[in-house]
Amino acid sequence: MHNKLKQSALLGKVRNVAAGIGFMSVVAITTAAGAITLNPDLREAVFFSEPVQALFAKQIDMLSDGSANAEMTQTNVSSPSESTDVGNGLGRNLVPIKFNAIDPSRPLSAGQRQIAQYLAKRYRVSQDAVESIVKLAYKVGRDEKIDPTLILAIVGVESSYNPFAASSVGAKGLMQVMPKIHKDKFEELSPGDWSALNPEMNMRVGAQIIKEYTRRTGSVKSALRWYVGAAVSGSDGGYPEKVLGLKAILDARFKQGRLVAQSRSSDKVSAAELKSRDS
């Protein structure tokens, strides 16, 4: 009987220690999360750390290498309890198969490569990830009939090329689109199967919004004021100038890349002509 009491007391102490460890773990995790949330420098250090950037690049590259296909097959919902919360962009199905259409075999042009290199350096984001986004912007720009460098500039100002960015007011993704406000556009793209965090869907809806605002207001600058909510708040905080300033840089980089490529091509032709003459 005495031994049983001793064993019971020992087990009680073990349970108390385990509970204490569990409590301390929760406190530690909560404290760390709070520190990351409240400290912009620490939050930036975590986001731009090597492991997080590697995950970021892997997620973006799913758009170009077709690896999303198998995952999408496994995530098809079969019951109401497993349904995707498309209205809030919180579903598991972030890359619907119909929006996995970037051609990985098609390289960037010289101008596009210059843009990607500039953006990767400016925003300290994986070069591979940025190249995928640049390809996507040119694809969406062509389809939606909107300047791709305008799209890329809005992405830079809005999310700093973080496709999983979310604001306190509910804006999500690369172009910080409000899914609750623009649900109709997402539904039109992919009825019943969409996510505001899917890069292509987010970019397509963002492009449609800025195109619509440009048509309504008569200028891109005014459209950008609407895009940032100045039509309601009255103050744009210099947002149009930031976007158009970045667009001007990207346009210059694109032109520079084309000129360099043309110069190299001309040099090759000249060298070939000289060699032909010598022979």
From TrEMBL:
Question: Which InterPro entries does the record match to this protein?
Answer: Lysozyme-like_dom_sf (IPR023346), Transglycosylase_SLT_dom_1 (IPR008258)
| SUPFAM superfamilies from the UniProt entry | Lysozyme-like (SSF53955)
Q: Which CDD domains match?
A: LT-like
Extract the coiled-coil ranges from the record: none
**Residue ranges occupied by any Transglycosylase SLT domain in the UniProt entry:** 141-224
Taxonomy, superkingdom: Bacteria
Q: Which Pfam families match?
A: SLT
Q: What name does the UniProt record give this protein?
A: Transglycosylase SLT domain-containing protein
